[in-house]
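Slides due. Your pick:
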Amino acid sequence: MAQISTVDAGYLERRIQHVEEATTQLADIANQISYSLQNLNGAISTVDSRLLALAEDFKKMMAKQEKDAAFQQAQTELVTVRQEINQRFGKYDKVRDTMLGVLQATDIAIVKSSTIANVSEEIMIQTPDYWLAPCLVAVAAWIGNNRDLAERAIAEAVKRDEEKTALTMALICRRNNRVETCYEWLSIYFSHQDSADFTEATFTYLNAYVNGVFGPDERHICDDYVSRWISEIQKSNSNLVQEQTEEWKKYCETFITDMSDSYPELKRNVREFNSINNSLGRIDSVNRIVGRFKHITESDIDYNSLKREIDDNLITLVQRFDYREMSLRDRETKWALVKEYGGNIEKAEAEIARRKKAREEHILNLVQTSSDIVRSNSNDISKKKTAITFIGDYINKGYNEYVKETKTLFPEQVTVCLDDWQSTTVDGSNTPEMMKDYERNMNEKRAAELSAYRQKQEKMFMYGAIACGALGLIMLFVQAFLGVVLLAGGGFLAYKWYTGKKSHETAVAEINTRYDQAIQNGKRDIAATMTELEKARQNVEAFNNAPAKDIIA
C-alpha cells in the first residue's frame, strides 16, 4: 500500500506540475491577448480620432463647397436681377439722374431751358407710369415759364403719387423761394402723414417748418396738422399724459447725484442718511435739469445747416427707388451681401433682418419721436427745440412731479449713532443734551469696565494668597513640607497682589484716558454731524420755499 501511495503521489505531482505549466501558458496567452486588446483599443482610438478629424474636414469641405456654391449663385443672381432691373426700371434711373442734373443746372444756370424741356419730355414718353417723370416735366416747364404745361404735368404727377409729388415740389419751391406755393405743397404732404407712423425724415421736414426754413407761414396753412397729430395720439392712448409724465419724471431722476462726499459726517453717523442723500441729490439735480433745457431753448439755430439738410433730403427723395422696384432691389441687396460675405447666406440674412429691425424701430409716433430726440445726446439743437414745442407740457408735468416728490423725502427726524449709543433730533437744537447723554453713556461704560477690571485683578491674587496661607498653616501640622510649599505660594500671590497695585493703577489710567478721548471725539462728531444736518436742512428749506416754475416756458 505504501508503494502504491508513493507512485500515486509522484503521478499527482507530475499532473500538478503539468497543470501549473498549462496555467502559466494560459496566463501568458491571456497577457498576450490583453496586450493585443490594448493595442487594438489604441488602434481603434486612433481610427476614431482620424475618423472624427476626417468628419470635421468633411464638414468644413462641405461648408466651403456650400459657400462657394452660394458665392457662385450670388454672382449669377446679381447679374440676372440687375439685368431685370435694367430692363424693367432702367429708365427710372435715367429719370432720377436727369432730375438731379436739372436741379444742379438750375442752381448754376448754365443749361438752356429748351434743352431741359426737350430732355424731360423725351423721358416722360419713355416712363409713362413713374411719378417722378411728370415732376421733371413740370420743373422744366416751370424753368421755361410754360405755366400750362407745368400745371398739366403736376396734375399727372399728383395722380401717380400725391405724397411724393407734394414733398418734392415743396422742397423745390423752397429752393426757389416760392414760399406760398411751398406751403401749399407742404400742407398736402402733411395731410398724408400718420401721427402713429412718424418717420425721422418726416420730423426733419416738420423741424424745418417750425424753425422757418420754408419761410413765414403767414396763412398758417400747416399749423393745424401738428395739433391734429397730437390730438390723434392722445385719443389713441387715454393714458398718454400719465405715461409721459412718469417718463419725464424718471428722466429727471437720471440727474440725481451722490452727495456723500459733501456730507461725510451724516453718512457716517446718521441712520437715515440714504433718505437724506436721495433728497439732497435730487435737489442738486434740479439746477442741472433746468440748465439742460435752458441750453436747448436759448441756443441759436444753425439755419444754413438746416437748409442743407432739407436739400439733402430732396436729393434722397429723388434718388429713392419706386415701390415697383423694391422686390427686385431687395433681391439685389440679398445677393450682394451674400457675395460680400463670401457665400455666407446666414450672415447675409442676419444683416438684412438687422436693417429691417432698425427701420422699424425708427418708426414711432410724434410724441415718442420727440421724446427720443430731446433725451438723445445729439447736438442738433433745432430738432430738440422743435420736439420741445410738441411735448413741453409733458416735460413740465414730469418735472413738477419730480420736484413735488423731492420736497417730501427729507426725514423729519434723524437718528444719530456713535458706537452703541444713539439719540434722535429734528434740527440739532438738542445738541447739548445729546452730548451730555453721550458723555453719561460713556461714563457708565467706563465705570462698568473699571469695576470688572478691579474685581478680576484684586480677587484673583488676594483670595489666592489667603487660601494658600490658610492651607499652609494647617498642613504644617500634618505634613510640614507641603505646608511650607503652600505658605510659600501664598506669599508669592500676596507679593503679586501687592506689586500688581502699580500696574493696576497704570491700567486704570489707560482706561480713563481712552474713555476721556472717546467722549471728546464723540462730542466733536456730534457737533460736526449737527453742523452738516443744519446745512442740509437749510438747503432743503430753501428748495421747498422756492417758487415752483415750469422749465419749459
Notes: The CA atoms of residues 37 and 43 lie 9 Å apart. The chain has a mean pLDDT of 84. The longest strand covers residues 414-418. The two ends are 137 Å apart (CA to CA).
